[in-house]
Amino acid sequence: MPIVRRLKEFLEKEGVAYRVTPHVEAFTAQETAAAARISGKALAKVVVVRRGGTFALAVLPAACKVSTEHLRGILGAPDVSLAREADFVPLFPDCDAGAMPPFGNLYGLETFVDQEVAALPEIVFRAGSHQELVAMPYADYARLVKPRVGHFCVHD
């Protein structure tokens, strides 16, 4: 599956320069980074979190794990947890399971970006498939998505 149509049309309508890089099929964020020959710190992964009865996207480096404790403070919600794949797959009908792009605005979801991703000049992410990555200037991404930025990445 190539870059999802809704994302491609949105980026083209907004006149954003981006590049698509194919890679061998990979499923975890770290496998994807290795397949694309980039650092796990340079690849942004998307984690769906549950906040009460709603979902949100947490975007962080592939080399990190989400600190739900830190997210609770950022979201101002006491009940924040990682969503189960079975619960969020229906929210992204045009994406391979687990390969959704970090554009919550295209799916009616709030987006939170870790400050490590926000500090990079470029954001690299899956765009709906397990075989392609998209890269674009972080400044353009931030302008289009208007994510909330905070610190919720923890390193092993």
What does this entry look like structurally?
By secondary structure, the chain is an alpha+beta fold. It has a single domain, classed as YbaK/aminoacyl-tRNA synthetase-associated domain (YbaK protein), CATH 3.90.960.10. 26% of the residues lie in helices and 29% in strands. It is built from 6 helices and 10 strands, in the order αβαβββαβαβαββαββ. It has helices spanning 5-13, 29-35, 68-75, 85-88, 115-118, 138-145; strands spanning 19-22, 44-51, 54-61, 65-66, 80-82, 110-114, 122-126, 132-137, 148-150, 153-154. Strands 5-2-3-6-9 form a 5-stranded mixed sheet. β7 (122-126) and β8 form a beta hairpin. The longest helix is centred in the N-terminal third of the chain and has 9 residues, at 5-13. It is globular and about 40 Å long. The mean pLDDT is 91.
The shape, in one word, is globular
User: CATH architecture, please?
Assistant: Alpha-Beta Complex
Helical run tally:
6
Low-confidence blocks of residues: none
